[in-house]
């Protein structure tokens, strides 16, 4: 057989394997797009953990009708600066892969309206195939519906877990993103039930407590620390408030949720002599550092990052947590093992 290029829909479906592993990963992309669109209000509706439906409605800048088809094409983005410098990207996305990937493994309905157009426009794509488009009544913003995810890919669908565990993964995604932006109002509904509805413009402390545990507010310290060009802020539980699992540790680098071993290890080091071995603190920490000191694109979907100076990051986190806890009166018996 001779060499030939893969057809576009096959390429998209292969890429979808990376971008859309499960409902929660599709949801993450859609909510990030809503944030990138400067929305002040984002509503998320899920059916059966996202397996039967994901809907994200925002009041952001919208997509011009004549660009909507392009938005669904691979590697098409409005987020790359004019000089093409990816280091200068300040949005959560810029690869132009999410919408075409999702549209290649589901039925996607995209409706959008910009501030200066008289009506909205709607496009439906079913498993990579354009179905129809036309005028749609819509306030300013974007509304995306994803139905029948993986319905045409039985091998994929089979690997989905229960609606309950897919829902928990979706909830986790929304929770993390909502923590990064207390200025934006977020609502989450599941199977017609309201899970939460948060006003925009809250303080970070309040937002974090509302999303993790309201009692955290009285059982935590505020972390605010600056060293060289790095800054750490957030909320960390007192050693008297702990969990049996480390599943309430929310870590962010330059505004993005991450799951990084170095950061998790630093948190453990900071609390190591304050908590029993099988107990874990509850916290949300936001690390900010120059983009040149961190590579956030190692594996964006998995939240892996690489730091230029990981020792400095570790020392900052341990130092900031120890100092914040010390100030609260929890003086440790021995210096932290940095
Ligand atoms: P990326 O976010 O990497 O640019 P996507 O495939 O997620 O790629 O989206 C493609 C383009 O569609 C975006 O660059 C943006 O212009 C537009 N878009 C997607 N979602 C929205 C939204 N909610 N509001 C406004 N524009 C959007
Ligand atoms: Mg995107």
UniProtKB/TrEMBL annotation:
Gene Ontology CC: one annotated term: mismatch repair complex
Example GO biological process: mismatch repair
Annotated ranges, domain DNA mismatch repair protein S5: 208-326
Single GO MF annotation: ATP hydrolysis activity
Keywords (A to Z) from UniProt: DNA damage, DNA repair
DNA repair in keyword set: yes
Function per UniProt: This protein is involved in the repair of mismatches in DNA. It is required for dam-dependent methyl-directed DNA mismatch repair. May act as a 'molecular matchmaker', a protein that promotes the formation of a stable complex between two or more DNA-binding proteins in an ATP-dependent manner without itself being part of a final effector complex.
Family per similarity comment: Belongs to the DNA mismatch repair MutL/HexB family.
Name this protein carries in UniProt: DNA mismatch repair protein MutL
Gene source species: Zymomonas mobilis subsp. mobilis (strain ATCC 31821 / ZM4 / CP4)
Gene name of the encoded protein: mutL
Portion of the parent chain present: 1 to 338 of 613
